[in-house]
Amino acid sequence: MRNPPLHRYATRPGLYFTDDGGADVVVRSETADQVWLCVLEPIDKPSAFFQDAIRLFADPNTSFIQQIHEFPVCTRILEHLYLRETIFRMTGPNYGLWYVHLPKAWDGMQYGYRVDGAWDPKHGVRFNPYKFLLDPYGKGIEGVMDLDPAAFSYECTVQDRKVIGSAYGSMSTIDSLGHVPVSVAIDDRDVHKHEGDPDHPHVPWRKTVIYEMHVKGFTANAPWLPEELRGTYAGLAHPITLAYLQNLGVTSIELLPIQAKQDELFLQEHGRKNYWGYSTLSYFSPEPSYATKAAQEKGATAVRQEVIDMVRALHEAGFEVIMDVVYNHTCEGGIEGPTVCWRGLDDLAYYRHQKSNAGRLEDTTGCGNTFDFTNTHVVTFAIDSLRYWAKRISIDGFRFDLGVTLARLNGEFTQHHPFLYALRSDLLLGNLKLIMEPWDLGNLGWRTGQFGIPFAEWNDRFRDTTRTFWLEDVDGSMDYGRTSLQEMATRLCGSADLFATDPGRGATASINFVSCHDGFTLTDLTRYRNKHNEANGEHNNDGSSVNHSANFGIEGVTKEPEIIAAREQAAMNLTGTMMLSLGTPMMLAGDEFRNTQDGNNNAYCQDNNLTWMNWDWLYSPHKTREMRRLETVSRLVSLRKSLDLYHHEDFFTRLTQIGLFKPSNRVKWFLPDGSSPQERDWFDLSTRSFTMRLLSNTEVDVCIVVNGVAENREFHLPDDSKWVPKWCSAEINGLWPGQNGHIVADQDYEDISVWMQHVQNANETVRRLAEEAQAKAATAGSVAAGAMESGVTTADTTAALSEADAVSTTEFPAVHRNKNHETTGGTTIDDANQTSRVIDALNEVSAAVAKAMSDDDAESIDTEDSANTNATADAPTADQRNDSKRNVWTMPALSITLMKQVQA
Q1: Ramachandran angles phi, psi of 255, nearest 5°
Q2: Of the listed 320, 401, 631, 805, which one is catalytic?
Q3: How many domains does the chain fold into?
Q4: Shared-domain flag, residues 53 and 126
Q5: How far apart are CA 692 and CA 582, in angstroms?
Q6: Are residues 290 and 180 in the same domain?
Q7: Which residue in 85, 142, 437, 592 is the catalytic one?
Q8: Within this chain, do residues 498 and 354 fall inside the same structural domain, yes or no?
């Protein structure tokens, strides 16, 4: 199809290749005096513009900026960069747009802009033609910014990596070219480019399970990948990576930002990196550093193609791809930050400025600047970018960082914002998955549930309620919890109090999560009561101090089997609540195998092994705790996907105006004795055990049984049916609901891992380490078994068993902090009374766990030797408990269980 004439693009900036071998170029700058397009070529090759360009030479009496005003097209040689810069004067402004037609253009062409105008920083005007600017619509990007005075529009110096100067001072006259990234043109006119693309999975919201991951972090240490694919888009597309994700059972992969990024000035001054990527440099270009070295060397087109190939591979494997996007602020930061694009093009138009002081920027993001979404052209820019990723890259949905900032008019949030209407009404975007982070740092910034159809939103109330119920209330010192039955039931039923805002808006709008990139991992939620962000270099002042986490008596890692058991079960309680609640569950990558960040809850600047997934456990010759958790989580995901009870968007129940549940034909509630809760029970904080029965006309019912107290407890399930347990959080510790007053210990664990035999590329070093681990574990197991045979008590064998655990699970001696915040070693308990309470709460499992938790010697321990275990010799077998006609089941302490109705 022929490209329409230039005037057809009068409202759309960008670079458009034309059939004459050139390109039409349009850029927006509403208040500039003059704009130039600059094309870069190597000086050892003939110029494409030799016939048209006037050569400029150094003139001590005239700056090159004064010279380029004289000629429509001119060129200069930059020997120190080995580049030729050809400068085209653009025509405009026409409704804020500037135009030029390039006689020649090619795929991979490097280019940018220079903009001249007033220099009046006190009034928010900062034009500086000495600064080489990116194309906001550029599809490719190359190069990085140097921490150099040239990158700043004001006069400054850099001493010891610290920028010294005033943003209100004189204009810098240092040319920034060579110190900043450049845009790269990509010719994607090929009409056959989407031939052979796989169909989009189009997973319905009601069947969606989201998996949030970082492209680099997920694959950087992946042992199944060859070195050149680790940490790359191609590594994520590798068949074994895809097979792992399929085995886990998730449906939609949510990627942390993959749009091109640049480290904030603060991080550059301190020599650190923005690992997460929430510092966008280009909204149309993918981040080059996540591409393979081969693709980076070939250029921006190859980098983009690797991204396209990754998305295709994920689609072929059945996964949706959701992008985390950051349109609330840019990498330029506050007024003291560098000038790489928007600040130099039109500071007043792109950024929100304080009403009382136009020289300062509004900041509702905590990142120094805020895009002005009251400007129609900023809204258009964001929509164009999203459409590009959806149409050209085939992205299936977007998660909007700090979404409230995108919906502020005159500083206040409104769900009627033009940007939200533009997303809703767009024929392409309106049919994708659109997820909002419903808060920002501005006035009245917490807006969970208020975005309306068709947006889903992260549900922080679900996160905090679930953490409080299973962590703070268990690990605390209060006689009662802080979470009522009413609150827990509301979250389990889809959070209708938050999301039943519009007719037709359903529970799937609630993105239920307990951990995400921003905060503790699931494992760290159960290991650390306090954040440990010292490595970030901000004196542990960054990151949230309110985490609703618990350490179960010891801050950090430990060898104590009782503490390990408590933590593992708590982690499964959190995961079980998330997966068994109505709404859309979202997992954090690595939570399924005990990934840890050593207590860092704001690891945005840690591009290292702290944040990269540790996959060593895959090659253990025995089944590690990581593998057991993976299997437990995977089975839970599969169970959820198999139940049509969750495959709808209605709420299970809603609340009356006085805060009580309306009667519902979808759900019934029972207390442990089988009675229905009375009004007082819904708000009684001591009511921590209940059964939730989900009713179905087309399939069998299920019961979600929550035992939130520190003892095994009998539950009278509905007597109109026979019930069988399908999943229990206590199974992570080898325990299972039973009858006749007993908890059943599972003796059927398969101890041998198949990964070492079947995962590709297990090199000799990995195999040797695995064999050494096996030998050490066997030795520790023999010591433990021998001690038990000689009559030594369970307590005496704990050290040997814990050593075996340490071999296979990377649980090491804890590091503790006393009241003076001094670091000490050993296993000192922060609060003896609290720890005693926790251990007493788990006395039903601790003795069995002290033996069964040894991953490498599970089969050598005879559970009948333990006097403390509830799995006695006369406990019913699995067949006996399934055949029992009684409906009284004993649930393990502090557990959540899925019981399924047995059809007659």
Answers
A1: -95, 130
A2: 401
A3: 2
A4: yes
A5: 12
A6: no
A7: 437
A8: yes
